[in-house]
Amino acid sequence: MDEVAGAIADPVRRAILTMLRDSRLPAGEIADRFQISRPAVSRHLRVLRESGLVRDELVGRRRFYVLAPERFAELVEWLTPFVQPSGLEHRLDALETEVYRTRRERRTRGPAARAQENTA
Amino acid sequence: MDEVAGAIADPVRRAILTMLRDSRLPAGEIADRFQISRPAVSRHLRVLRESGLVRDELVGRRRFYVLAPERFAELVEWLTPFVQPSGLEHRLDALETEVYRTRRERRTRGPAARAQENTA
DNA sequence: CGGAAGCGTAACCTACAAGTTACGCTTTCG
DNA sequence: CGAAAGCGTAACTTGTAGGTTACGCTTCCG
Fold first, then answer.
1. How many other CB atoms are there within 10 angstroms of residue A89's CB atom?
2. NCBIfam families recorded for this chain (chains A, B) (predicted)?
């Protein structure tokens, strides 16, 4: 829990997580999107890995990073009691949005399409 | 947003927030519950204040701290897209729990009771 | 087989977060 | 009015997070 909160506290790591929301990415491609050096990004990736927020998949000489959604829920559940009752509406809206997004993506790219992406 | 995430990353500050969930507290009483020195706690309180997660209310020579729920929602909304679809159930459960908790508290202590507490 | 591609790690530097002690400003009250 | 209560702030110390460069290990491919 402490690790998760700490991991999310850094803006670079939050940006990485946002990138991975769209698709899995190899370490090099992630590093290219930042101004900081590749080793610096590599360590951010390690922090994310150790916090359990991402997994890595080795493919040849590349290492792909993938979101590991499980741990996110912890933090959300910790935060829930603090959200003001009037904020519940917004949260339900967000939930709804998310449900639609998930459905749309499942239509767009089925499980089969997943094997095709990121093979450049 | 960065401030909020950073504020929550610290275990002491999370503990303070949890305390304030039950009732508002004066700075001294908060400090007493930790092993670290009072000035240290005082700075944690400042961080929380500047991040907008808490407000302070001056009463005589005491300074009470109160939760300011608004900012919490930001973080929750940022996290929402990452929570796995199967996690939605858990989140809805948490929501339900929270709703009941809120209702129970509103029954137990009405708005009138609020003026009575923490007047020791 | 040898060089390049792709990453991680080690060693080092620097800035900052978080702790401590000392101090000063209001407010309360005998 | 003066002392104590209640907090915040300043100044200082120290561990660690995050950046850089240098290096080494696999994997791919001409």
1. 9
2. HTH_metalloreg
